[in-house]
Design goal:
The protein is about 5% helix and about 35% strand. By secondary structure, the chain is mostly beta strands. Belongs to the YjdM family. Keywords: Hydrolase.
């Protein structure tokens, strides 16, 4: 019998396997062994279609976005090159031609 890992959320040792998932009965957190290795201190950002984004990717805005505190708008279809991923609610840091430095939410972009 193999030793199952402790829960990554509450560190409980009472985890059990259910199909391809590992479940913690104390905090009800579920994860798979495949993603357990990937979750280690690595920022994972996904676009609106579920594609994983990495630093330096090119993205396309999928919705008109109003710029807070301005009358400008980032139009749908705007291409943004050389993005940088950051922690937080707005997890994409970039520079848009004609507008300047911006922070975008990944749910409003797709990988280009």
């Amino acid at each position: 019998m193999t030793k199952l890992p402790n829960c990554p959320k509450c560190n409980s040792e009472y985890t059990y396997e259910d199909g391809n998932l590992i479940i913690c009965p104390e905090c009800a957190y579920e994860w798979s062994l495949d993603t357990a290795e990937e979750d280690s201190d690595e920022l994972v950002v996904k676009d609106a279609h579920g594609n994983t984004l990495v630093d330096g990717d090119m993205i396309v805005v999928i919705k008109d976005l109003k710029i807070k505190g301005s009358s400008s708008v980032v139009k749908q279809g705007t291409k943004v090159k050389n993005i940088r991923l950051v922690e937080g609610d707005h997890n994409i840091d970039c520079r848009i031609d004609g507008i300047g430095a911006m922070k975008l939410k990944s749910e409003f972009v797709k990988k280009g």
